[in-house]
Amino acid sequence: MRNGRLVLAVVLGLSLATPAAAAAQPWREAGQPPDRRAAELIAAMTLDEKISQLHLQPDAEHQRYVPPIPRLGVPGFRIANGPAGMGPADDKPQKPATALPATMALASTFDTGVARRYGRLIGSETRALAHNVSEAPDINIARVPRNGRTFEGMGEDPVLAGALAAADIRGIQENGTIAEVKHYAANNQETQRQSVDEHIDERTLNEIYLPHFEQSVVEGHAGSVMCAYPKINGIFTCENPALLQGKLRDDWGFTGFVQSDWGAAHSTLGSAAAGMNLEMIDGTWYGDRMKQAVLAGQVTEQRVDELLLPRFRTMFAFGQFDHPPVLSPLPTAQHDAAAKEFAERGMVLLRNEHAQLPLDDRAVKSIALIGPYATKAKTGGGGSSAVIPTSTVDPLPGLRQRVPGAAVTLDDGSDVTRAAELARTADVSVVMVGDDETEGKDRPSLALAGNQDALVAAVAAANPRTVVVVKSGGPVLMPWAASVPAILQAWYPGQQDGAAVAGVLFGDVDPSAKLPITFPAADADTPANTPAQFPGVGGVATYSEGLQVGYRWFDAQDRAPLFPFGHGLSYTKFAFSGLSVRTTGDGATATFTVRNTGRRAGAEVAQLYLGFPAAAGEPPRQLKGFSRVSLAAGESQRVTIRLAARDFSVWDTAGHAWQPVHGGFTVSVGDSSRSLPLRASLTR
User: Fold this and answer.
1) What is the pTM of this model?
2) Residue 23: its pLDDT value, please?
């Protein structure tokens, strides 16, 4: 390993500064301010060297790589995909890493502590595999549930996505890995993603599609931002000065660097003027064309310096010049345990009639394990987020290890009649269904593919003790939901699939996750349900639903979902009481009691929704805060959720700023967007 690290260091152009070199090259002096070191380095570079650092240079050995400059001590720069573990990176071939549950499962935890630990694991493995950047998290709002990358995101609400993203980013960056939040902004569909022009009004853009990016920068201190493929109101995001300079740097104080998505740059002059710092895939726009633009006086060399400065500053600040990442072994056993815990914590118990779950390992002697997603672990979705797992636990060995005294028989469900016969002979049938979302392609429907609906219906009819485990990246239609006693939404559980699902089914873990996205009853029951809205007409997707995204639309249209945003059951029960709301400065404080009224320990996610005065023109209710509370049986806890002035504000298009709203507000508290037993009025 020692020799391997030495070879890697030489390949990446890494060297320790001698005292003489440090005197001649002051940017090598550790302890100096990152801005100063970056400026001194850039001043010593030739124009060709500067341009070589503005774009990736893939070759036979590298996929996501900016080469080193040995004479100046500039290390190579390697970029890895996220967001659910280290996906395709600079290595050829791709190296294995821990395949974590999909980010949608992380969002379901409503737990910033878990999000930070999730990010910490990704950051540590990215560094151990000798990379500088993790392209994570993906936080695009799930405007269209059929989006092929829904599984990569954090759901449909910017408050939830912002809180978890900021924590995830802090975790990634704890050990010197740079987090790259993506895709900025409104990258909400895969259909025509590289060219679609999204027409979004100013208020909707600022209230729905930007706040979580702001939180990622202001609270998460993301070192990098990825500009996205689409146009917004006619301008590609990677050359959009209002987004890259106005919002990111001027309004939010972003000091990191902006990297294009894979081939998302479309110009030299426009991208340089807007502030895109690093071009990916190659130097189509920031290579020879940039040099010619400088020589022709179209781009000043000072502007080139300004484009370089944020990345070098960030690398210095993260210690990547002084202590570059080197190849190290992964703590696989420790990370397997973490992956299992994250998967368990992210599973949502959607239905549990007659306390079908948890299963009793003393009473269950035979299990029929059925379905196309019962044959192997569902480690993740497709595309750039796909991780090659270090190991896997498939469903069959996972169940057999958990209940060694039971006979577990596997059937892939391809023959519905045969599967139903197997189910009829078992104490319990566990049917595993799901979808296969992937980057580059939106789903044609939310319906399960193939014979899966018929399979569930037949098995449930054959065995009244049927549990359905859904492994999907987002909402799916469930025409059989009312005929099945128990439904567990497992998302894409990652490499510990079999062990994690078994643990939840048999009650080793109390389900406490909540839906970060609404499950509709029909395909048409989604906000963007016309061709003009999605996928667009004539290359234009019109966001005419405005602020009515996700549960906001269901509430505004008085439409009943199959399962609402924030929904999730437990193996115990909880009660809410004693809501008190008072004004505190420019904000407010809500205090209430959560009590575990059941017979076992568990955790509840208390959710606070705010209703604005009608004149404000807002949706009926909006999530403004949440708190995960762990309680022993019979225990109660007083919970406080604080609201800031921003929570009572709307975007004013005349002043192009947040504007406080005055009047009567409604504060509602409960365990989902449609289960809010506590309500109080507040006048501001």
Assistant:
1) 0.94
2) 63
